[in-house]
Design a protein that fits this description.
A hairpin with a 2-residue loop joins strand 11 and strand 12. Helix 4 packs across helix 5, helix 4 runs parallel beside helix 7 and helix 5 packs across helix 7. This protein has a single domain, classed as 3-Layer(aba) Sandwich (Rossmann fold), CATH 3.40.50. The radius of gyration is 20 Å and the shape is globular. The chain contains 12 helices and 12 strands. The longest helix has 14 residues. The protein has 311 residues and is an alpha/beta fold. The structure holds iron/sulfur cluster.
Length: 311
């Protein structure tokens, strides 16, 4: 069953340098209990896609297309209706807990606040629920730590606190934006294990540039380049037999596969190359690639790719 469906989603916003076209005609589906990874280099539009679903972008941003969640288009809801969805139905775990957490509020109060927004209960009950959520994300001595401000938490514990805020109202869908960024290897491993446990009966859009984390946690993986999807497949297929030259390049840049970086730089989201956006960096480019923009095609069951080599 499909929980969230993006249909031709486009997001752009004006800047002093020009119009940033961060998300370009993205079609994507997340099923019930599915973990979908969204991977790609920094600045390719992944986080903006997540924020577009939550409608958490500045007012000058234009979001077009459809975001169908449980049958209703989120882009047609009023801000008041959207507030009922955020946190309760769809929760976002923002990247960089050091800045996302309020430094002057205790972590317990920050979780309780998220609970009060959506559930009718006394302050005391919300507080107890907050401690319960902290326990579920394995914060040691949750009763004591609920009374502490974020600066008393280590990097890994701050990330757990962010996950706790996301889980506070038991949402059906979690959008996790780079939850393992900046963590050391052992903390990262613990956070991945925790995310797997807490999302056992949920759906998640897992935004990351960490391919190892995506391989470990996701059922399906979509690859984003310069604001558009270039490949989407079941995790085993994407990592076992990648089709798009960009996906191949990403995998080749992993230490376990030879640490070979992709030549060149990602294009700016203001001014894309003509034709296939990857052509200036692609070892397989032919004459057509510079002139025409390839469409996404289905190559195998649930394996889609945007590249002229498969047309
Ligand atoms: Fe490379 Fe051409 Fe495929 Fe683009 S369409 S990825 S340039 S081969």
């Amino acid at each position: 069953m499909t929980l969230l469906k993006l249909k031709r989603l486009r997001t752009c916003f004006p800047t002093r340098d020009g119009l940033v076209k961060a998300v370009n005609t993205v079609d994507l589906e997340i099923g019930a209990n599915e973990i979908l990874g969204l991977i790609g280099e920094t600045g390719c539009g992944k986080s903006i896609l997540g924020m577009s679903i939550m409608r958490l972008l500045q007012p000058s941003t234009r979001i077009e297309g459809e975001i169908i969640y449980k049958g209703q288009d989120l882009l047609k809801l009023s801000e008041a209706e959207m507030r009922k969805i955020r946190g309760k139905e769809i929760a976002m775990i923002l990247q960089n807990p050091a800045t996302a957490l309020n430094p002057v509020l205790t972590v317990g109060d920050q979780i309780a606040e998220a609970i009060w927004l959506h559930q009718t209960m006394t302050k005391r009950e919300a507080r107890e629920k907050a401690i319960e959520v902290l326990r579920s994300v394995k914060i040691p001595s949750p009763e004591k730590m609920a009374n502490e401000c974020p600066h008393k938490f280590s990097g890994g514990m701050k990330e757990r606190a962010m996950i706790a805020i996301g889980l506070a109202c038991n949402p059906a869908l979690i959008i996790a934006d780079e939850p393992t960024r900046g963590l050391d290897a052992s903390t990262k491993e613990q956070i991945i294990k925790l995310m797997k446990e807490v999302t056992e009966e949920k759906s998640m859009l897992f935004i990351t540039h960490d391919l190892d984390a995506a391989a470990e946690i996701c059922d399906t993986v979509a690859v984003m380049y310069a604001g558009e999807l270039v490949e989407c497949a079941k995790t085993g297929d994407l990592f076992g037999k990648p089709l798009h030259p960009y996906t191949m390049g990403l995998l080749d840049s992993l230490p376990c596969r030879g640490l070979k970086p992709i030549r060149g730089m990602s294009p700016s989201l203001i001014d894309y190359p003509s034709g296939c956006r990857f052509h200036p960096r692609c070892d397989y480019a032919s004459a057509i690639c510079e002139k025409k923009h390839p469409e996404m095609v289905k190559v195998e069951d649930r394996h889609y790719v945007r590249c002229f080599m498969y047309l």
